[in-house]
Every structure is written in C-alpha cells, then in structure tokens.
TrEMBL record:
The keyword Transferase belongs to this UniProt entry's keyword annotation: yes
Chemical reaction(s) catalysed: N(2)-acetyl-L-ornithine + 2-oxoglutarate = N-acetyl-L-glutamate 5-semialdehyde + L-glutamate
Subcellular location: Cytoplasm
Originating species: Knoellia locipacati
GO MF, one example: N2-acetyl-L-ornithine:2-oxoglutarate 5-aminotransferase activity
An annotated GO cellular component: cytoplasm
Superkingdom assignment: Bacteria
InterPro entries for the chain: AcOrn/SuccOrn_fam, Aminotrans_3, Aminotrans_3_PPA_site, Class-III_PLP-dep_AT, PyrdxlP-dep_Trfase, PyrdxlP-dep_Trfase_major, PyrdxlP-dep_Trfase_small
Keyword Nucleus listed: no
Pfam family, one: Aminotran_3
Residues that bear N6-(pyridoxal phosphate)lysine: 259
Keywords per UniProt: Amino-acid biosynthesis, Aminotransferase, Arginine biosynthesis, Cytoplasm, Pyridoxal phosphate, Transferase
Annotated metabolic or biological route of this protein: Amino-acid biosynthesis; L-arginine biosynthesis; N(2)-acetyl-L-ornithine from L-glutamate: step 4/4
Protein name (database record): Acetylornithine aminotransferase
C-alpha cells in the first residue's frame, strides 16, 4: 500500500483505475466493482464505455435520475452565484427549501428544519433532540439501519456493523419490527424516543404495517416520548407518497431525511413537528459548517419542484405496481415475490442467490444491490420507465440461471 506516485495521468481503463483505487482509498464499503463516469436518466456508463441500467440509483439517491436538466441548471446557476456561506448567515435557497420541506411534510405551524449533510447526521440530530426531553432511552427496531456514525450506529441493529465499535451510546433497546406488543413493553416513561423506518430499506424493503406506526404514535404520546420516523431512504417520493409515514396518517415528532432530497448532492435534514419539539433545541446546541448551504439547497429545491412538475409520485406508484406484476407474471420457481412500496423494492428469492444474480446482472448491463442473501434491492431513479423495468424483468430468468451454474 501507499500512494502511487507514477500513476498514469488520464488513464481510463476499469482495471487500471481499480488498481489505483486499491492504492489510494480505504475500502470500507468493500472494493468497488466498477468505475462509472457518466449518466443519463436511469443509465450510467463505465470508463470502458459499457452502459448499465442503474437500478441502484446511488442507493436511493438519484431521485431524478442522472443529469436531469432541471437539477443541472439549478446547481450550475447556484454554483456560479455562490456555493457556500457560513450559517452565521442564510440564503434564499436555504429558506425556500426548508419551507417546501415543511409544506410537503404537512408539518404544523412552529415546525422547523435543521439541515445536515447525510442521513447519519440527520439521525444524530434526532438523537440530540431526544436527549433534550431529559431522558436517554431510545427504542429502535431489529433490522433497523440508521447510519454509521457512533450515535446512529447505536440505533442500527446489525451486529457486524456495531460490534467492532463498542461501546456505543447506552440505553438503546431493539425490538422486533412490526410487533406492537414488543413495542408496548419497551416504551416507558424513561424513553426519550422511538425511532422507526416506514420501510426497512437495508433489511430488504420490509414494510411497516400502517397500524404499527399508529400504535407507535399512541404509545409514545402516552409515555411522553418522541416518535422519530427515519425517512432517509423512504422520503422524497420513494414510496409514492412524499414521505413513508403519510400512508399511516400519523403526525410524528420528527423525521430524518437525506438521500433523494439532494438528488445526488449531499444534504440531509431533521424536521421537527410543532413548537414544543422544535423548541427542544435552542441556539448554540447544534450545528454544522455545511448545513443547508446554497448549493445543496438549490439542488433540493429543483428535486422537489421536478417531482411535482413531472407527476413522479403517481409514476412511482405505477412503476412499483408494474414491477410487482411483471415479476409475478414470470412465474419463476426461484422467485418468491417482490416486497416493498413504490420504488423501494426487493425481489425475494427462494434461496441464497442474490450475489450471483447481482454479478450476472452487472455482466448483462444491470446494476442491482444484493441487500440480503435471498433479496435483491431495486431502488432505481424515480423517473425509471416501464420499458426499462421490463428489460430487467425479462433478463431475470437468465440471470438466475447464470447464478445457479456451478462455479468452475
Ligand atoms: N437511515 C436510513 C433509513 C438509511 O437507509 C440510511 C442509509 N442507507 C441512513 C440512515 C444513513 O444515511 P447516510 O448513509 O447518508 O449516512
């Protein structure tokens, strides 16, 4: 290891660039499989010029697809005017994005937004908010993913992510997801907050029963605890509603956002509902240098206005239903079905074939995520078309066949 001083300038083959990667980055996410260099809609190209249908979408980030002209124009204009200012000051874009987020969230008067730079940071904000109740107890779900910073990691349930970094912040209880009685037993007058995802994305698109979210609302209200809904993956149209919680009709105390909000630029948010919750964090108690800078705010505004202008919420519902129907119509013996909501989906397999399928898919020009040994997550750009989804569904039988071939 160590930096390569004589790396060829402008070298572009996949193999060469991945070799340079190996000598210059910490491969915390695993070694990348491709070097990508350009995109258009739901398609991306690698540095060898090979094209892929992107059903990963930056992990549910590229809401408008790649290079959407509205996003390109908004970000280009903003960067030419002013990219960043400190939060001693504000910008028109920052204020307008906060107003729009509150509006689409249906947040009551007295609500507020704190902009973060990632999902994990939005969750950190929610944890700090919850501490201001004077309590420390946190309740999260088994299978939950809330991020990798040390506070958020305490809410994330997977042992492989947590154990190398123990001890994490204390007083966190994990309860089985979608189990009202387990939640009832865990929520007490020591609970600062219950934190739940409307769909557990990293667990493989497992959907919360709306009645479960309503029970969580009742239990937290009765115990004087906050209900925080982590919308980092589900928010900004991914489920076909602006936010995943909206289907259940509840009003949460706070939601966390990131991913789709910036359409590819790094912006997250903590949204507090109503004056009592918003008032928990007072001046000087939290902050971040980049928080909601003009550049990411301009990106966020163009994402929200484009989702609206292009009717993408309805489109997401239709594409999600189409995918479910098309996969069911295959009647494939190795496929159990499609789980999830909107365009946060997993093709569930009857055996542990997902990484073999993902490799075969990449060869065949499709990017998909083997989120679990038996589940392939599909979180394409919200603009993905029926025809594009059909290309993948039509290829699935041969991808499965390749995955089942004995390795030589
Ligand atoms: N919460 C949820 C529900 C997520 O899906 C993720 C990311 N997969 C995070 C938090 C963390 O977001 P980030 O990677 O931007 O820190």
């Amino acid at each position: 290891r160590g930096p390569r001083t004589n790396a060829p300038e402008g070298s572009s083959s996949q193999a060469e660039l991945l070799d340079r990667y190996a000598h210059s980055l910490i491969p915390v996410f695993g070694t990348p499989q491709l070097v990508l260099e350009r995109g258009d809609g739901a398609w991306v190209w690698d540095t060898d010029g090979k094209r892929y249908l992107d059903l990963v979408g930056g992990i549910a980030v590229n809401a408008l697809g790649h290079n959407h002209p509205a996003l390109v124009a908004a970000v280009s204009k903003q960067v030419a005017e002013m990219a960043h200012i400190s939060n001693f000051y504000t910008s028109r874009a920052q204020i307008e994005l906060a107003e729009r987020v509150l509006e689409i969230a249906g947040a009551p008067a007295g609500s507020g937004v704190f902009f973060a730079n990632s999902g994990a940071e939005a969750v950190e904000g929610a944890i700090k908010l919850s501490r201001r109740t004077g309590r420390t107890g946190l309740v999260a779900a088994e299978g939950a993913f809330h991020g990798r910073t040390t506070g958020a990691l305490a809410l994330t349930s997977k042992a492989a992510y947590r154990d190398p970094f123990a001890p994490l912040i204390p007083d966190v209880t994990h309860v089985p997801y979608n189990d009202n009685e387990a939640l009832r037993a865990a929520v007490t007058t020591e609970t600062a907050a219950v934190v739940l995802e409307p769909v557990q994305g990293e667990a493989g698109a497992i959907v919360a029963d709306p009645a479960y979210l309503r029970a969580a609302r009742e239990l937290t209200t009765a115990a004087g605890a906050l209900l925080v809904i982590d919308e980092v993956q589900t928010g900004i149209g991914r489920t076909g509603d602006w936010f995943g919680f909206q289907e259940s009709g509840i009003v949460p105390d706070a939601i966390t956002l990131a991913k789709g909000l910036g359409g590819g630029l790094p912006v997250g948010a903590l949204v507090t509902f109503g004056p009592d919750v918003t008032g928990l964090l007072t001046a000087g108690q939290h902050g971040s240098t980049f928080s909601g800078n003009p550049l990411v705010a301009a990106a966020g505004l163009s994402v929200l206005s484009t989702i609206e202008a292009e009717g993408l919420l309805d489109h997401v519902v239709q594409m999600g239903e189409h995918l479910v129907g098309a996969v069911a119509a295959l009647g494939h013996p190795d496929i159990e079905g499609v789980r999830g909501r909107g365009l946060l989906r997993a093709v569930v397999l009857r055996s542990e074939l997902s990484s073999g399928i993902a490799s075969a898919a990449r060869e065949a020009g499709f990017l998909v995520n083997p989120v679990a040994p038996d589940a392939i997550r599909l979180v394409p750009p919200l603009v993905v078309t029926r025809e594009e989804l059909d290309l993948f569904v039509a290829a699935l039988p041969s991808l499965i066949a390749t995955a089942k071939e004995p390795t030589p």
